[in-house]
User: Which sequence fits this backbone?
DNA sequence: CCGTAGCAGTTTGCATACAAAATGCAAGGT
DNA sequence: ACCTTGCATTTTGTATGCAAACTGCTACGG
């Protein structure tokens, strides 16, 4: 599919469009990474000039990138006073997790109606790999697999609009999750919930999967909250 | 609250920050209106120069605004080939209404847990005013009140993150609703659903309100779909 | 001693300038 | 007649320049 016929009737498989990325596009991606990974601290003014030198570009594309990131909520732009990484407060997180819950619950419900057996098998594979990391107490790998499972369900939902909103929110939350740890009890609970997620998905039980995911996200929120409370607020002081 | 004490102990009510709006900010708002109201047709290239002359600004702030609107999904930006208003396809709408349903359902549930009697009274007032317009078959006024009711519930939910995502999606959907009409049966049904919404909200029955709103949005989606099917696809050819 | 005013340096907002890419058209070839 | 090719024009992407706003410091006055 997606082939094209030229005049003589010969078939030309449509080539991948050459990836020509404009500077501002690239800058948006790079800056987003810097912010998510905490390299740029919240509330610290980052002069445009500094960033320009860092990336070797002029101010014009950089400013375009800043505007985009501000509209995504990662930066705050004060007129005539430049950009700061927006601080993620506890209140922000309290707001974000319920929204994530609603989006993921919808994704789960939609996924149940259209997921293929192959896709379920893939989620199952990811799941068991994740459980393996759990038994080995490998938290970073666990997180990575965890994220991939949620993304796989999101993909199976087949709703690009939903995915976009999910990714936007997930990107902001990830900043917090970078710092968060997990108590043993929470980790046990999360894995149990993932067992239930897999089971509901395999049975294509939309209502149940929706409920579980909503609860799962609420618990994730609690986990992050506990972790931050324990740590002291590292979100503020990360260099 | 939010007052500030100066050195002598006198109270200074914190004044509204002077609205100094930068050009690109203003441009984002104005362009958004042009797009939502259909003044700029989908898929038509709009050269930057034209817009610059229209607004009397240079290309720099205009381009910053274009990047933001593109990140909101209202524009498509093709490298070296400028901006076009993104076409709202039937498939897009099919994706958007379920997401709206999930967001509004969450808003309803949250609202039930924190809404005050005064806020309920206000929603009730809006509701009866809306019903009045319904009995008089005043569709535009009906739409306006309808929108305000949904926004009032959103406000009552007290979740700024949720509100932002809702507004973003609502802005895009509104483009379609501008053109949509309603059959008598659909209109009757919508008003009935709004009665149920008011009732559930007044009883602060979160679960029920959530279910009703989700269904309500699904029906709205069906209504728009029918309307577009009847009209032929006006979204494509609006001048 | 504290507080304010004024000034130099910095930073931002916007306009303009220039290079690369795309578009449209006309001339030439098949 | 159609398709290709090359060139002039338009449009976009990025860099630079300039004026206005902000920042921090010093000096002056109470």
Assistant:
């Amino acid at each position: 599919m997606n082939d094209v016929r030229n005049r003589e009737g010969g078939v030309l498989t449509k080539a991948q469009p050459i990836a020509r990325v404009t500077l501002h596009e690239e800058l948006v991606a790079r800056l987003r990474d810097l912010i998510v990974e905490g390299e740029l601290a919240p509330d610290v003014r980052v002069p445009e000039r500094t960033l320009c030198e860092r990336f070797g570009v002029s101010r014009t594309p950089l400013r375009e990138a800043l505007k985009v990131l501000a509209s995504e909520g990662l930066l705050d732009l004060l007129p005539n006073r430049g950009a700061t990484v927006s601080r993620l407060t506890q209140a922000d997180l309290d707001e974000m997790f319920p929204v994530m819950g609603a989006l993921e619950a919808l994704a789960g419900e939609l996924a149940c109606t259209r997921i293929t057996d192959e896709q379920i098998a893939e989620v199952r594979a990811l799941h068991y790999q994740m459980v393996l990391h759990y038994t080995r107490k490998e938290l970073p790998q666990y997180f990575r697999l965890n994220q991939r499972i949620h993304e796989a369900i999101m993909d199976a939902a087949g709703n690009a609009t939903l995915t976009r909103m999910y990714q936007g929110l997930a990107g902001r939350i990830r900043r917090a999750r970078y710092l968060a740890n997990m108590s043993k009890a929470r980790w046990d609970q999360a894995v149990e919930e993932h067992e239930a997620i897999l089971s509901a998905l395999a049975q294509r039980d939309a209502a149940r999967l929706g409920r579980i995911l909503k609860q799962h996200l609420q618990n994730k929120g609690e986990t992050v909250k506990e972790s931050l409370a324990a740590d002291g607020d590292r979100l503020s002081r990360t260099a």
User: Anything to note?
Assistant: The interface with chain A takes residues 20-22, 24-25, 60, 63-65, 67-68, 70-73, 79, 92, 95-96, 98-99, 101-103, 105-106, 110, 159-162, 164-165, 169 of chain B (CB under 8 Å). Residues 1-12 of chain B have pLDDT under 50 and may be disordered. The CA atoms of residues 48 and 54 of chain B lie 10 Å apart. The beta strands of chain B are 3-5, 11-13, 75-78, 82-85.
